[in-house]
Amino acid sequence: MAVHKPALAARSVAALSRSGYPEPYRARVLPREKRRLGDAFGLTRVGINLTTLPPGKESSMRHWHTREDEFVYVLEGEVVLRTGAGEQRLTAGMCAGFPAGVEDGHQLVNRSDRPAVYLEVSNRDPEDGAHYSDADVDLLWSPPHARGQFTRRDGTAY
Question: Contact 78/90 with Cβ under 8 angstroms?
Fold first, then answer.
């Protein structure tokens, strides 16, 4: 039976390996693959990515969003979830959710010896911003004076 929209094979969506992070943060997350499933369907209010995170890589810097909820569901492999409460191992079939505005940064790290695959789901809010929790990560995403851009905590551009 042929597959056609509104259905598709998730791995038929082109894998992107890029990051908007400035260095040195970009090197911490790449290479990773994201398949923008929400975009493939023309979804405008929800973002859905099928992400493959290689061993030794981080999903992002530890962060929290001002206006976007986030949800991750691990499909294959394992990752370490880092939050303000510490670390916990997530394996296939486990999930985690992060409500908008809760100032507890989160991050996934692949410390295993094989790739991890997970779904990322979030609402899309053009007024969203992100704050980065770790003291050694001098980033802000989309502050009011620089929408859609990364800046340092003091507001200066990268």
Answer: yes
